[in-house]
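Table S2 (text version). Query chain:
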Amino acid sequence: MAIYEIFSHPILVRYKTSIFSKATFVCLIINLITLLCPFFITFYSQGFWKKIDVYREQPDVSFKHKMLLLLETQSPDELIFWSTYEQLNQLMNHELLQTMPLVEHREEDYNRDGKRDELKMTIDVPLSKKKVVSVKLLLIFDYKLYFYSDFSMECAAYLQYSTSLPGSSFSTFGELSLMQRQPLKHAGKDDKYNIPIIDFSEPGNPPTSFENILLGYIRRNVTTSLKNTYSVWETGLAANESFKINLVILYPEETILYKVGFWQLLKWALVQYIAVFFIFSSISKKIKTYLFQKHLLSSIVINPIKQKI
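Corresponding structure-token output:
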């Protein structure tokens, strides 16, 4: 007949001694090493307090129907400027020729998740025989995130292209990417940068040029930029004497930096500490078992087997 193990349990052997003894002192030192060494190892190996982390989120982006357009021609005195800001048009009136382009655009949501995936736009600018050699375009967007903090801001996409050859059309394709010099909050409402990029409320400092507008924008710690761009410049003059701009701007999923909260910070620290602590705990237990079983430390042994016998 085959014999097999049906049940087992360990035998607990106790070792007792007084508080002021060599065995107590040795055990205290081993316990302190077991508790402190995992902390020092995890702390000085970097990443113990993980204050900044990343996550992925599809931003909620929408075009605000606000833009600035500047076309430079072969004649330095014939600059073609237009914007959706009437105050800015008035400020530019003494320097630049204003024209009214035909603008068509639409935003697509391909995966039907309620968030727009891209912007398609065409701009048709009447030229009256002017030869365009440079394009500067600034588009204004609303940008929102919801996963951790309720973040919202007014952001911009700026594109520029110049050449020595006059063109009839310009096409560009790119991605509106988030740029961070500081992490976002982990919770709560964050609308610090939900302010106009082109602000006419500041006295004595009107936005009278692309340089001033872009300088004020780039000083923000959180901005957007047009990345991964591909451009096509068509040379020659259009048959209808107009310059056409074609845009496709994608709103990709972003990798976002954020400050972790207290409980996530504590959880990450405990996971690292406990992982190393188990190793030291196992080693210290083997050391104490060896010391007491070999009677290297004097103590009173309470063995349940011998007591029953």
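Notes on Table S2: Residues 262-293 form the longest helix (32 residues). The CA atoms of residues 37 and 280 lie 8 Å apart.
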